[in-house]
Amino acid sequence: MTYASWYSQTETGLATLQHSLKDIESGVTRQRAWNPELVIGLVQTEDYARAVLAACIGVLGVPDDLDEVVAARMQRQLILDRVPHTFEFLIGEWALHRTVGNAAVMRAQIKALIDNLDSRPNLRVGIVALNTEFLAPTPAFDIHDSSAVEIETVTGEVIATRPDDIAVAERTFALLQNQAVYGYDARVLLTRALATHAD
C-alpha cells in the first residue's frame, strides 16, 4: 500500500497528474469506479470538469494550469471508445443535486449522463439513490482490473495492491452495484435531479 500526497504530484499544477491517469487507464481493461459526491471524471462534461478542477487548484494553492488540465481530462475520455476496455461507474445521487459550477453546468452534465446510459456497450453507469441503506464505508475509489485500488482522501491518494485490500474493495463495489439503479430507473433519478437545477 502506498500513499501519495496531492502536493507530491502537483508541484507544477494538476496537468501532470491527469496525464499520469491516462497512462494508468490505458493499461487497464476493466475499470470500476464509485464516487458519492461528484460525477466520475471520465464522464464529466468540459464545463463540469473545469469547475471541479478550478476548485482543486484553489484549495491546493498549486500553479494554475486550468486550461491544460481540463484538456488532459477531456483527452482521457477517449479511452471510453477503446475495445476491449470496460467501465462500470457508480455515482451517488447526491452528486446530481449539489451544484458544481452553476445550474447551467449541472443541467448539461446531467443531460450528458442521460445520454451516456445507453451510448456505449462497454460503459455501464448506475446511480445509488440517497435513501439506500448504509452497508459499508464508501469513500470515492477506483478498482483497476483486480490488481489495484485507488482511494481518494482529502490530502492525497492511497493505492492498495494487497489481495485482501482489493477483495474488500470488490465486495464493497458489489454491494453498491446491488443498490444502484440502471437504465429507465437511473433516468428517473437523473431527470428528477435535472429539475432541481432549473433557472
What are the main properties of this structure?
single chain; 199 residues; 8 helices; seven-stranded mixed beta sheet; 7 strands; globular; Endonuclease, Chain A; alpha/beta; DUF5753 domain-containing protein; 45% helix
Question: What does it look like?
Answer:
The protein has 199 residues and is α/β, with parallel strands linked by helices. The chain has one domain: Endonuclease, Chain A (2-Layer Sandwich), CATH 3.30.870. The protein is 45% helix and 19% strand. The chain contains 8 helices and 7 strands; from the N terminus they run βααβααβααββββαα. Strands 1-7-6-5-2-3-4 form a 7-stranded mixed sheet. A hairpin with a 3-residue loop joins β5 and β6 (148-152). α2 runs parallel beside α4. The longest helix has 17 residues, at 163-179.
